Amino acid sequence: MALRKAASLCFFFSLVFLVCVHGHPNYRDALTKSLLFFEGQRSGRLPSSQRMKWRSNSALSDGSAAQVDLSGGYYDAGDNVKFNFPMAFTTTMLSWGALEYARPMGSELANARAAIRWATDYLLKCATATPGKLYVGVGDPNADHKCWERPEDMDTVRTVYSVSQSNPGSDVAGETAAALAAASLVFRKVDPVYSKRLLSTAKKVMQFAMNYRGAYSDSLGSAVCPFYCSYSGYKDELLWGASWLLRATNDVTYFNFLKSLGADDSTDIFSWDNKFAGARVLLSRRALLSKDMSYDRFRQQAEDFMCRILPNSPSSSTTYTPGGMMFKLGSSNLQYVTSISFLLNTYAKYMSSSSHTFNCGSTLVKSSSLRSLAKRQVDYILGANPLNMSYMVSYGAKFPKRIHHRGSSLPSLAVHPLSIGCDGGFQPYYYSQNPNPNSLTGAVVGGPNQNDAYTDDRTDYSHSEPATYINGALVGPLASFAGSYNK
After folding, report:
1. Rounded CA separation 76/80 (Å)
2. What pLDDT, on a 0 to 100 scale, did the predictor assign at position 408?
3. Active site (annotated) includes residue 273
4. What is residue 262's predicted lDDT score, i.e. its pLDDT?
């Protein structure tokens, strides 16, 4: 792998394909759009400041089946269901990005806070509406996935799902606690009252996760599986949640809990389901920046993860496409690309601040090694790829036009005020070859396959569907690179 500077910046990632990028992508523009995307995913009553005007109020009576108010929050992807497990992860990643990259975010920091708060307002309701219960989703996914209708027209059952002492969900509770704790840090100075409420609720939810162990998939079954099963179990969420509570409180109780978990599983992935690597990078901050050797175990685990990602590492277990994209799984692969890129770039930041290096076998790894790989992944998403195509809607000259997204693919209420029922959207909209009428600006789709091929096909949800957790992890790196390269 070689880097050369000339009139353009080119990198030779494999023996098969040479990618040339003229200058740097406009990370600042991509950052703005990546945050705007979240307004298109909003559920509930939209504020007067709503910028994505083709969206309208939806699901205002969510929670009524349980006599509680669970309006608000986000639809997770191209459907009309609110799954709290990935929503909370999205919130945690947005908050982590806002904490690490507040300065380079500049004027977009206010929009990042707004995106976070739209989720945390809802998560607070879910955690406090009924004593002894944590609500974890609204909407029957099996019924919803049989329909193609706008969220504004929803007529599917809005079933409410929850976990409790007798039906535990340590995974979704641990992730919810992480989201609330991370967000409490984002709002600590700008809204201390709200921050304290977030943190006090996070502590209670984390205690629930620790006291009543169990996977929410076992408690809720087909309501969450196969959509967002907790495939990795719940130990990673306990580690993740406690790590964020430790950062927010400095309470040694959480550190003692982390030590007692014995979470030594090796991994080469980071996602809404598997948080081990994220927790270890977060905890490594103390080992590298504070030189606290009691956290050195987590630093070593974080670096083991990095060695499994780097393409030139002897212990690498990560595949790359001919065009240089990290490839983990065939469905919605860009979610792993954005999440892992966040970890690469953030660990590089910690390394740079502490003048730290490490080895993968005999290969020396510097902070620039990790940052360079993260940048190449982000650049690939933004168009530095074999198809010269941006995978972010409305970014660049060429981008996906037929994304798998109900609201984007159906005419807005302003254009088509009559209701479109459950089956009404399939013909002529879902199966149409026409571009989506509404631009879900900033949405990043699931992305190309292992051969860098992408078909702009609305029916191919594994590649053409956007998701909040793809964007949630991308915001941080975009802000970081905007601060470095778009000055």
Report:
1. 8
2. 98
3. no
4. 82
